[in-house]
User: What shape does this take?
Amino acid sequence: MIKATVVLERRVQRGANGFSGEFGHLPVDPAGPRCNCGNGGCLQALVGQTALLERARRAGVGLGLRDGLAELIDAAEGGERAVLTILEEAGEPLGRSVAGLVNVLAIKAIKVIGESHVRWPFLGPAFTAAAVAGTIEPLRDLEITVSPWRDTEHARGAACLLLARSGAITGP
Assistant: This one.
């Protein structure tokens, strides 16, 4: 899944009914493949893990039906040209989509975490180029950092949400 958490003025934005962050369901290509949400052309359907694995299989990469991200990355690290191309191409719509978020919310920093960090060496250059190119001039000094997923970050986020709901956190 492709998620996004927006933090503005040191507050996590939860949206209506706490249902924010579904960045993977950003409509990108109306003619694109059907997404598991029922819509067509969502970012997730174009560049999510399932979509990337499917594209690699169609390109003739020797991935079994049970193979996942680890095998895809192994193929990329092994120099499998089709996988390298697929991952590079995935960076562009991700970066362009992030640029839209940056422009709308005037975000100054993006942190990529989770499974995406292992793909970063392959999709990062195209992501960064598209994100910077699509960002309006005053926001082009966008800070992009990448880190592996740590359960402590998830726990910290959950604790902050609980504290905010209880009223213990009321401001910056």
In short: Helices lie at 43-47, 49-58, 69-77, 81-105, 116-134, 151-166. The CA atoms of residues 73 and 119 lie 7 Å apart.
